[in-house]
Amino acid sequence: MRRGTRPAAVLAALIAVTTAGCGVLPPLPEPVPSEIVPSPVAGLEPAEDSDSISPDGFDAVQRMAVRVRNVGCDELSTGSGFAIDEYTLITNKHVVADSDNLQVSTYDGRDIDVGTAATAGLADLAIVRTRDPLPSYPVLAESDPEQGDDVTIAGYPSGGELTISSGRVIGSTRDPLNANLGEVLVTDAKVEPGSSGSAALDDQGRVIGVVYAKTADDDSLLVPISTVREMLADAAAFEDVATCAGP
Fold this sequence. Notes:
The chain has helices at 8-12, 60-64, 93-96, 225-232, and strands at residues 65-72, 76-85, 88-91, 99-105, 111-112, 114-120, 126-130, 150-155, 163-174, 183-187, 199-201, 207-214, 220-224, 238-240. By secondary structure, the chain is mainly beta.
């Protein structure tokens, strides 16, 4: 499908948000202080009449999002991710790179034992396999959204409280960070450092992309779900993650 594109000058001024955020450009940010406790974000209480609410009172969007902490050899960084089945989650390559200890926790603060991680060679994507079951996972959309479609992003900026931001798909552009990837989606839903790897959902709660960067004017960039599906179907698309101690 053909979509509108953002001006090249805007996307040329990309803000790099590395392992504590989005993007794959050095230098890495300062370690995230463990004492940071972000203010609670308004509007996260599920609607009382929602069919998606589980017995513990949390809705499907909250349950499927996970917080990722990458304890590396030199620093601590944070990111987000989301489950795609009971023992598999998706995040960004730069979120899990150079890890000495990869930690995953759920919406209710439960730690998930991590098994293995693999990163994609083409896109800023990673697969993490867990030993513990994940609480919930969404449906992956069959196709990419159209320009103007609603989008909701659920993640953990700064490794803190779960944040949900909303906006619309405003176009597509050639990926400015991974030249061989092709087109990526541009939305006006806000993301911050730590949002990397968040699921972007349509108005039916289906995943339509994965957050991996933001632009200088605070638009967010998504790996489209068509690319995610293609890579998940290709066993050769991912390889074991390189840790700070070596492969």
